[in-house]
Amino acid sequence: MKPEFENIPLVKTDKRFQIEVNGHYAFIDYRETTHQIALIHTEADPELGGTGAAAAVVEKTLNYIEESGKKLLPFCPYVFAFIKKHPEWKRIVDEKFDGYDKL
């Protein structure tokens, strides 16, 4: 994660994880059960394009999931690609996830 995002807090609402950067948002829509968090869609406001904000919200969310003790279901293609690029995060993916062997 780029240093400029490290101190920006991750906010969890009932539908998304998000960070705010200069009045603009990068977020991930999710669904949560007792044992799993499914990440559905990642998006950043156009003003944040190319800044690394989307990667920052993903990394902060993965840290949150790991700390919660839940397992990840990376349905979002961006999150899936992030984990392929950073395979150390595979440790929190639910082994029953359909694409687990492709990570």
From TrEMBL:
Record domain N-acetyltransferase: where: 9-94
Return the PANTHER family for the record. BSR4717 PROTEIN (PTHR31435:SF10), PROTEIN NATD1 (PTHR31435)
Q: Which InterPro entries match?
A: Acyl_CoA_acyltransferase, Gcn5-rel_NAT, GNAT_YJDJ
Concerning Pfam families, the annotation shows:
Acetyltransf_CG
| Protein name (Swiss-Prot/TrEMBL) | N-acetyltransferase domain-containing protein
| Residues in coiled coil | none
